[in-house]
């Protein structure tokens, strides 16, 4: 696609659906980083990503953390 930025290469690679008429199958290592157009991340992208994530800390670990914080303070101070 045409580069939306005025500086840099005139054309850049953009992710698309495999069914796109102009799609080319490439691996990321075949694209020069300067020629890769990163799509903006929107709030709806973040909400969708968070909806699929599982907690990485259990409730019992949070209780231990809170007890530690009460005893020793925040950030070790």
Automatic annotation (TrEMBL):
One of its GO terms (molecular function) is ATP binding. Gene3D superfamilies: 1.10.8.60. Residues 13-73 form the Spastin/Vps4 C-terminal domain. It comes from the Eukaryota. The keyword NAD does not apply. Keywords: ATP-binding, Nucleotide-binding. This is Spastin/Vps4 C-terminal domain-containing protein. The lineage of its organism: Eukaryota, Metazoa, Spiralia, Gnathifera, Rotifera.
């Amino acid at each position: 696609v045409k580069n939306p930025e005025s500086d840099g290469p005139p054309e850049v690679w953009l992710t698309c659906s495999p069914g796109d008429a102009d799609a080319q199958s490439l691996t990321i290592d075949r694209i020069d980083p300067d020629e890769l157009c990163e799509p903006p991340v929107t709030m709806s992208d973040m909400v969708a990503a968070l909806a699929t994530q599982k907690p990485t800390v259990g409730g019992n670990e949070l209780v231990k953390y809170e007890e530690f914080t009460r005893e020793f303070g925040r950030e070790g101070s």
